[in-house]
């Protein structure tokens, strides 16, 4: 191994320790194992797409530590992250790159900026892939339960026809989140390889919903 590879491994390990500490007690779907899965998928996509593996993995590890759902004070969390990166031994250009990826990923509100670099696209794809497929299904129900929301309410399906304002005014269900977001994620993949991975996960969700409705009506 070359020296800088040893450094990179050390930095990635330190980031892992930091993130585990921070996310350990979360039950909103941002637990350590979400990070683990995003890292695994990130590595796979990065290798296929020829992206910088170190930047991808570091950004994947740290992508949720500034999330406002996890931090009472997101600005303080952002400063902590910047300080940590500056002291980590990561070269300045890569620190900038990782910070840019994380801030683009956690952008809130309309007019979401597109990912400027391949590495950012890879990590964003991996994060979105974790919201679909069998794992995605599990996460929707975990999140809904955490929010105290019902699994399903057939009258909510009709809300698909309503305006966004009317829709948001009603009470959310887990099943409704598939239509609001999860079934749209396949089309939002940045990279060709992630789109490929998304296909199977998407088909699985469609199959899941078919089975769900059939069971709901006692048809199967
Ligand atoms: P990210 O990991 O990209 O920050 P979010 O914070 O948007 O994702 O959501 C985390 C998980 O919780 C995802 O799997 C998502 O599907 C689920 N989730 C988010 N909002 C809702 C919702 N309104 N109803 C059900 N599940 C949700
Ligand atoms: Ni995430």
Automatic annotation (TrEMBL):
Protein name, UniProt field: HD domain-containing protein
Xref: SMART domains:
HDc (SM00471)
Sorted alphabetically, which InterPro entries does this protein's record hold?
HD/PDEase_dom, HD_domain
Instruction: Name its species.
Output: Paenibacillus plantarum
For the HD/PDEase domain, which residue ranges apply?
Answer: 27-141
Which Pfam family, just one, is annotated for this protein? HD
């Amino acid at each position: 191994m070359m020296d800088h590879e040893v450094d990179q491994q050390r930095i990635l390990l330190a980031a892992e320790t930091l993130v585990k500490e921070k996310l350990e007690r979360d039950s909103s779907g941002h637990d350590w194992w979400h990070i683990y899965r995003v890292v695994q998928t990130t590595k796979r996509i990065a290798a296929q797409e020829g992206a910088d593996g170190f930047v991808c993995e570091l950004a994947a590890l740290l992508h949720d530590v500034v999330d406002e759902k996890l931090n009472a004070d997101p600005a303080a969390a952002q400063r902590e992250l910047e300080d940590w990166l500056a002291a980590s031994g990561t070269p300045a250009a890569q620190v900038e790159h990782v910070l840019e990826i994380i801030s683009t990923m956690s952008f809130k509100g309309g007019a979401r900026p597109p990912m400027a670099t391949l590495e950012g696209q890879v990590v964003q794809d991996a994060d979105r892939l974790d919201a679909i497929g069998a794992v995605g299904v599990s996460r929707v129900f975990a999140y809904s339960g955490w929010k105290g929301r019902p699994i399903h309410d057939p009258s909510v399906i009709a809300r698909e026809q309503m305006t966004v304002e009317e829709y948001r005014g009603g009470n959310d269900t887990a099943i409704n989140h598939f239509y609001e977001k999860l079934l749209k994620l396949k089309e939002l993949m940045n990279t060709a390889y992630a789109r490929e991975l998304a296909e199977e996960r998407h088909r699985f969700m469609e199959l899941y919903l078919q089975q769900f409705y059939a069971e709901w009506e006692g048809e199967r």
